[in-house]
Design brief:
The structure holds two protein chains of two kinds.
Chain A (H helix, E strand, L loop, with lengths): L1 H28 L4 H6 L6 H11 L5 H13 L13 H37 L1 H16 L2 H15 L15 H35 L2 H8 L4 H39 L4 H11 L2 H29 L7
Helix pairs in contact in A: 1-12, 5-6, 5-8, 5-10, 6-8, 7-8, 7-10, 8-10, 9-10, 10-11, 11-12
Chain B lengths: L33 H11 L11 E6 L17 H7 L4 E3 L5 E3 L2 E8 L2 E6 L13 H12 L14 E8 L2 E6 L5 H6 L25 E7 L3 E6 L13 E6 L3 H9 L5 E4 L2 H10 L3 E5 L2 E9 L9 H9 L3 H9 L4 E2 L24 H10 L6 E9 L3 H16 L2 E8 L1 H10 L5 E2 L9 H5 L7 H6 L4 H12 L3 H18 L2 E8 L2 E5 L2 E2 L16 E2 L2
The chains are: A mainly alpha, B alpha+beta.
């Protein structure tokens, strides 16, 4: 087991190393750089542009730029943002927290909405089932950024009192923070809730038709007991699996939703940094994202090996 | 906001003691309904009511600043902040005329010498006294190539800066330069920084009405009133807070919900709609300051052929673009927007401006393309919805004259890179933002400049005309020269200009008083603003 873990950690480091080279090259291969992007249409001489590049070290050969970056990164210094001139790491950490909070709230919402509608559709059938399926179809078809924009416009038009656009940090005012998170979380949660809802519905329907449920009914158990102890408990496994998978898509969706609702999370940070060619920030975010994916996979691998005797990595 | 005649006595005849009136013909016959204008006038008038003190003005901004050192930043989004933190020797007044600011007056003993008398007792935000030494330091630093200041080219004619006494400074120019005063009046080009203070990019220190307090990227930028500001009684506000929203519809909602008191929008149609539904909202388009040009790569065929370029100009129905894209809130455009000296009024006759697809076809046939021509990709900035919309209409108009293009919306940074390097195919559009002086726009056509080289300009006659216009300090004559240049450019179709419009539509709630929007991309009049909530 120890050997397995060490082996995996070795691979993790190699993968992160590769990702860092790849993203470093990729960003610099993109046309347009920070000097150009920051000046916009301001009339500027070619010498001045070159001088800005020189100050940022962008005029050096790319391998030297990379080695310079790597040297600092290994000591935990991911550089200074070209745009804000502030260290990347502290900004990144605070933004991680914001995105994590948004994703968590959205996940809870998605589970509640999806679980409830799925259960209702499966148990009540008839018109309720139809309504839920139409609702699901719509929520799945409309992208989250459209829903987000609609929410912003409609609330702004009809309920201007709801100051939804006032992001407040959690530590400053938890209540204001939560209220500013609710609508963005909702626009994120809808599409995910569909998947949960449909899976819940299917799982409950499938299990409801199985023999052991019929036996339970025949035994004369109360419907509530049958629902709680037999249907839901057995349907839970596939639902949890699906929910877990969907959390990842929440993180991806947060890029646009954060931009629309002006929430200072990781997604908005990445979006802005790419537009302004803020290389140190992009590099740090990509590396962080890669690290999360690799770490999750590592944990899953280890968990499988522990749980399932058939899985062996020797 | 009265209409000024094009031949206003501009600078001429003004006594040298007073700062001459660099009048800009300001005509605000912009298409927003007459109702919108009725709303503007009371807000514009410096109201007789006694200003109330205190309160926080919250402004929604669509972009973060990139650096707060006025000498090194070239980012448009920074000017909003540098305009409140720093001041310069001169400034723009409400009519876009130059007036003294840190200077009390100036003398102009000969066309190439300017002597400024400075205010005494002014302090920087860090307590340091302001004197002529700071002015000299500012410009010496700016003109040092190591600083890489985007403003350096604006002052390339400055030969020597001399401190005469602590409150007198002398500028000697290599040649007569009409643009000099315009740049001095503009933030950040003319902003004075304290001598010997470093790190202004993140800790700005100026002499302006507001002091930097804090900045959280993508969230909030906070300024506090400067208790030692030299204008009696100003500023009235305790604090100014900028909140950042990247999405235009979010900005609109933030204003409507009064999360912010003031903002500007990019789309005239949205602005008009908001005013219609909220009568308490004051909407003020600035003067036209932005043009929408199509830059041509004339280094090779077919754009090197003047007949092809003229055909393109004739095939362009400018009035139709203006109506469809801007709902009429603008004017037909030429090289220089109307808010500048000698700017085009949108009505006067320019060569090859009349929409005539048949004549365009004929010219194309003369050029050797009797069956029409395929110009390939037409690059536009994808992030600017107005540009993309206009490009689509142009595509249809040109098709009628047998000119085919393929619209390619692009991300801003690579498009700018292609523009400055000159490696785009045939057509590319980048709308120009406000420039302190019309010369900055004309410099893009000079054959030895960055942009002139990129687009293949090689017209020494035009180079001479542009240099002469900048040297002309009599503003009447300068306006005439600038009009002549625009005619010449239109005649050769060195660029296809479509329309001109205000850079942004500023809007605020009617409890915000004594704010004046400027054609310039700065909000310096926050210094006179007060709130009555």
């Amino acid at each position: 087991m120890m050997r397995l873990i060490l082996n995996r950690i070795g691979w993790t480091i190699a993968i992160l190393f590769g990702v860092s080279i790849f993203s470093f090259m990729l960003m610099r291969a993109l046309p347009g750089d920070f000097a150009q992007a920051s000046m916009g249409t301001t009339s500027i001489s070619a010498e001045a542009l070159d001088s800005i590049r020189h100050d940022l070290g962008l005029d050096q050969p790319i391998w030297r730029q990379y080695l310079g970056w790597l040297g600092h990164a290994l000591t935990g210094d991911f550089g200074t943002s070209f745009v804000t001139k502030q260290p990347v790491v502290s900004e990144l950490l605070s933004r991680c927290g914001v995105t994590l909070e948004l994703t968590l709230i959205a996940a809870v919402m998605a589970v509640i909405i999806g679980g409830f509608t799925g259960l209702a559709a499966a148990r009540l059938r008839g018109p309720v089932d139809w309504l839920v399926r139409i609702f699901n179809g719509l929520s799945l078809a409309i992208p989250n950024f459209v829903i987000g924009t609609l929410i912003v416009l409609l609330i702004g038009l009809y309920f201007p009192q709801l100051a939804v656009l006032n992001y407040t940090p959690l530590l400053t005012d938890p209540v204001a923070n939560l209220s500013s998170m609710l609508l963005p979380a909702l626009s994120l949660a809808l599409a995910v809730s569909v998947v949960i809802s449909e899976n819940t519905r299917a799982a409950i329907l499938e299990i409801a038709g199985q023999d052991f449920v019929m036996v339970a009914r025949a035994k004369g158990l109360r419907p509530r007991t049958v629902l709680g102890n037999y249907l839901i408990r057995n349907a839970l496994t596939p639902i949890i699996t699906v929910t877990g998978l969907q959390i990842a898509s929440l993180l991806g969706g947060s890029i646009l939703v954060e931009t629309i609702f002006a929430i200072p999370g990781l997604g908005q940070y990445l979006y802005d940094s790419i537009a302004s060619r803020d290389y140190p920030v992009i590099q740090a975010i990509v590396l962080l994202a890669a690290a999360v994916v690799v770490l999750v996979n590592l944990l899953v691998d280890i968990a499988y090996a522990r749980i399932d005797a058939r899985v062996s990595y020797e | 906001m009265d209409k000024r005649e094009p031949n206003d006595p501009l600078f001429g005849g003004a006594s040298q003691e007073e700062i001459g009136a660099l009048s800009r013909r300001s005509v605000l016959k912009l298409g927003l309904s007459a109702g919108a204008f009725a709303l503007i006038s009371p807000a514009f008038a410096q109201s007789s009511a006694t200003p109330k003190r205190g309160g926080t003005l919250t402004i929604a901004a669509d972009a973060d600043p990139i650096g707060l050192d006025p000498t090194t930043t070239g980012a448009f989004s920074s000017y909003d902040f540098t305009g409140l933190i720093y001041t310069g020797l001169l400034r723009w007044n409400a009519d876009m005329k130059v007036e003294p600011d840190l200077a009390l007056s100036y003398e102009n003993p000969d066309p190439t010498t300017y002597v400024f008398k400075l205010r005494q007792g002014v302090k920087f935000h860090n307590g340091q006294d302001f004197s002529a030494e700071d002015v000299k330091y500012t410009f010496d630093r700016m003109l040092d190539p190591k600083t890489a200041s985007p403003s350096a080219t604006s002052y390339s004619g400055v030969k020597a800066i001399t401190v005469v006494d602590p409150y007198t400074i002398k500028f000697e120019l290599a040649r007569s330069d009409a643009a000099f005063l315009s740049y001095l009046a503009t933030s950040p080009n003319g902003s004075i920084v304290p001598k010997g203070v470093t790190g202004l990019d993140t800790k700005p220190i100026g002499t302006g009405p507001f002091v930097f307090d804090s900045y959280t990227p993508n969230q909030q930028f906070t300024l506090k009133a400067n208790p030692n500001y030299y204008e009696e009684g100003q500023p009235y506000l305790d604090m100014v807070v900028f909140k950042f929203y990247k999405d235009q519809s979010t900005i609109a909602s933030a204003l409507r919900s009064k999360t912010v008191d003031m903002t500007w929008l990019k789309d005239p149609k949205v602005a008009a709609l908001m005013v219609k539904t909220s009568p308490d909202l004051v909407s003020a388009p600035g003067q036209t300051s932005r043009t929408f040009p199509i830059w041509l790569n004339m280094k090779a065929k077919p754009m090197s052929d003047v007949n092809v370029r003229r055909a393109l100009s004739l095939a362009t129905d400018r009035a139709a673009c203006l109506q469809t894209v801007l709902g009429g809130s603008g004017k037909v455009g030429a090289t220089i927007p109307e808010s500048q000296v000698g700017g085009y009024d949108g009505v006067g006759d320019l060569p090859y401006y009349k929409y005539d697809p048949d004549q365009a076809k004929k010219l194309l046939a003369d050029a050797g393309y009797p069956n029409g021509i395929d110009l390939g990709d037409y690059l536009v900035v994808a992030a600017n919805a107005l540009d993309v919309a206009c490009a689509q209409i142009l595509q249809q108009q040109w098709a009628k004259a047998g000119i085919k293009v393929n619209i390619r919306p692009m991300e801003t940074a690579p498009l700018l890179a292609q523009w400055t390097k000159g490696d785009w195919g045939t057509l590319l559009s980048v709308a120009l933002s406000w420039s302190p002086d019309p010369d900055a726009i004309l410099q893009r056509f000079v054959s030895t400049g960055l942009y002139g080289k990129a687009s293949g300009m090689a017209d020494t006659k035009l180079d001479g005309m542009i240099a002469d216009a900048r040297a002309q300090t009599d503003l009447d004559k300068r306006a005439a020269a600038n009009l002549e240049i625009q005619k010449y450019i239109a005649d050769n179709a060195y660029v296809i200009e479509v329309y001109q419009y205000p850079l942004r539509w500023e809007m605020w709630w009617n409890y915000v008083h004594d704010y004046v929007p400027l054609a310039a991309n700065i909000r310096t009049f926050v210094r006179t603003t007060w709130l009555d909530k």
